[in-house]
Design goal:
The complex is a heterodimer of chains A (about 350) and B (about 240). Chain A is mainly alpha-helical. Helix content of chain A is about 75%, strand content about 5%. Chain B has about 240 residues and is α/β, with parallel strands linked by helices. Chain B has a six-stranded mixed sheet, with helices on both faces. In chain B, about 45% of the residues are buried. The chains are: A mainly alpha (about 350), B alpha/beta (about 240). At the A-B interface, helix 7 and helix 8 of A face helix 2 and helix 3 of B.
Chain lengths: ~350, ~240
């Protein structure tokens, strides 16, 4: 019963997304629409961590590593191939495959949760350092110069099969929004499958899942790779939104930010972190336009407030309050009904007792 | 004993640093048996149990389940043989409903349709129908034990290993559990680890007594109950 309610709300959320897809270009200014591609890319990144951490219980502190790998793989492949359709798939594949390789050592090596977070964070920062030190003509992959901390300019997406027909920045919004909706529906579907339900079971109790005969290492590896692939796809959109990829994708600030999105939005939901990412993006970019309050200070305060006061995040918190209110009103209604029923019956019952 | 040997340990030992919890145990279980393992606290029953189920990798020796060498394998590999396992502390999915818990056990081995039917049957059989939508985390200890038994049953195992199935149960629940265990034994070979002697009297015929990591005696319940050595280790009497 609970699952069917979830499904209904998920479809509702997707429908809102579709309405937004068509309505936004009519409502918002061009600048906002172009900016949205980047925001939506971050939202998909948040979605991938919502799946891996929120549903699978795998605290990956380096989800941006797959995001960055996707962005770099797309850019490098697109420069070398000269069109962008194949590079999208190459990017998703590279990110998912790297997640699978890293995940193999983590899950089959039975690395515990805390070390998993440390390892994923460290590998992300290694990418950051590595790519920052590639500023020189000798660091290139095919025709693509890696460019050190300046990064590489990303070619914009073209219509499949027609490399000269390049999408305008405002058209990218449609691609990004459609990608978010599809990725979201895919994740919703995945969590409802046998695989998804076993993942939740593993999050709840690893030993019990093993004793039922599920190979938890394989399940975690699969989910980690899927999450990596989705993050990689988000990276492709990000590269398109910004127009270039730089090593800063892999920095500590960004990877910590993904964790904050999920904490604020709510673990155990998919849409929560998506909304968390969007809200925090606009909050920080709003704060960025003024100079009196430090951005990081605000983010830090938000993180502390949520961890202490709203540990389940906004969405599960709101659902909890809603459920409590519902059950209370149900209780009141049934009490009223009982009272009404009792009142006229009393004389009859007494009569029956007398007889 | 007649019939086929379904589980055997050969010189099974488990050391924790300098502590020898299980000491070169040779244990044999025949098909269709209901064997109880008893012994005082620290006798090595639970460690022995964990070696059988893949939760511990034995220091020495081997566990053979039918033809499968289970010593040092992963728990899921042991479970895959068709072995149903219930641990001492209930291991259940606290954040999920009773129904989801049982379904996850049934669905591991069956297609979607059969799993649904099997889940309903199991919930009915264990009288969990009324609480099927409740989260397991909010249930009483005894009920959680029953949910875990339900998960074991729903997987339709041919070998069932239970570690202290009645811990924390009320008297009535203990009686029902005894009935259920006898019922499971109609279709499955069983090992039950317990230290509640009352309960063992209700279900056991063949009993293995552990003491200081070794098998002290293996006999019928009546013979074990009469044995002076068993009384000594249980009551702590000095030998006269």
């Amino acid at each position: 019963m609970i699952r069917s309610r979830e499904t209904r709300w998920s479809l509702f959320a997707a429908a809102v997304g579709v309405v937004f897809l068509f309505a936004a270009p009519q409502v918002f200014e061009l600048f906002t629409i172009i900016n949205l591609t980047t925001v939506l890319a971050l939202a998909i990144l948040a979605l991938s961590l919502a799946l891996v951490w929120g549903y699978g219980g795998i605290l990956c502190f380096g989800q941006t590593m797959f995001f960055g790998l996707g962005a770099y793989a797309y850019t490098i492949a697109a420069i070398n191939i000269g069109e962008t359709t194949a590079p999208i798939f190459i990017a998703i594949f590279v990110a998912a495959a790297f997640a699978a390789i890293l995940g193999y050592f983590i899950f089959y090596g039975r690395v515990s949760d805390v070390y998993l977070a440390v390892i994923t964070l460290t590998v992300t920062l290694i990418f950051y350092s590595l790519l920052r030190s590639t500023s020189g003509p000798e660091y290139k992959i095919g025709n693509a110069l890696l460019g050190g901390f300046n990064g590489v300019t990303s070619p914009p997406l073209n219509i499949p099969g027609d490399p000269s027909n390049v999408l305008y920045p405002e058209d990218m919004f449609y691609v990004a929004m459609a990608a978010l909706i599809l990725a979201y529906l895919f994740c919703v579907w995945l969590t409802q499958t046998h695989f998804g339900r076993v993942m939740v079971a593993i999050r709840e109790n690893e030993l019990r899942a093993e004793l039922l005969g599920y190979d938890i290492r394989l399940y975690k590896l699969a989910l980690f790779a899927i999450g990596g692939g989705i993050a990689g796809m988000a990276g492709v959109l990000f590269a398109n939104g910004i127009g270039r990829v730089t090593p800063d994708i892999f920095n500590l600030y960004n990877t910590a930010l993904t964790i904050i999105w999920v904490i604020v939005g709510g673990r155990g939901t998919l849409i929560g972190p998506v909304l968390g990412a969007i809200a925090l993006f606009y909050l920080t970019s709003g704060l960025g336009t003024q100079a009196s309050i430090n951005n990081n200070l605000v983010l830090g305060i938000i993180l502390i407030v949520f961890v202490l006061l709203v540990p389940r995040g906004i969405l599960p918190g709101v659902i909890g309050i809603w459920d409590r209110a519902q059950s209370r009103s149900k209780l009141l209604r049934s009490e009223k009904r009982m009272r009404r029923r009792r009142a006229p019956r009393r004389p009859e019952q007494e009569a029956a007792n007398d007889g | 004993m007649t019939g086929e040997i379904v589980l055997e340990t050969r010189n099974l030992s488990q050391h924790f640093g300098g502590v020898v919890a299980v000491d070169r145990v040779n244990f044999t279980l025949w098909d269709a048996e209901l064997r109880c393992l008893i012994g005082p606290n620290g006798a090595g029953k639970s460690t022995f149990f964990k070696c059988l189920t893949g939760q511990l990798s034995p220091t020495e020796g081997d566990v053979v389940i039918r033809d499968f060498h289970a010593g040092g394998r992963e728990p899921h590999e042991v479970a895959r043989l068709g072995v149903g396992i219930k641990t001492q502390v209930p291991n259940v999915f606290d954040g999920l409903s009773v129904e989801e818990n049982v379904w996850l056990a049934a669905r591991r081995w069956q297609g979607a349709k059969r799993a649904k039917v099997l889940t309903d049957e199991t919930l009915e059989r264990l009288v969990l129908g009324d609480i099927r939508n409740d989260l397991v985390g909010v249930l009483a200890h005894g009920q959680r034990q029953w949910v875990e038994l339900g998960m074991v049953v729903a997987a339709e195992p041919w070998l069932v290993l239970l570690d202290e199935p009645t811990a924390g149960m009320t008297q009535e629940e203990v009686l029902r559990t005894a009935d259920l265990i006898k019922e499971i034994n109609q279709t499955a070979t069983m090992i039950v680890v317990e230290h509640d002697m009352q309960f063992i009297r209700m279900i056991a015929n063949q009993v293995t007594v552990f003491h200081e990591g070794r098998i002290l005696i293996e006999d019928t319940m009546d013979a074990v109950a009469r044995d002076q050595r068993v009384r000594d280790v249980y009551l702590g009497h000095r030998q006269q």
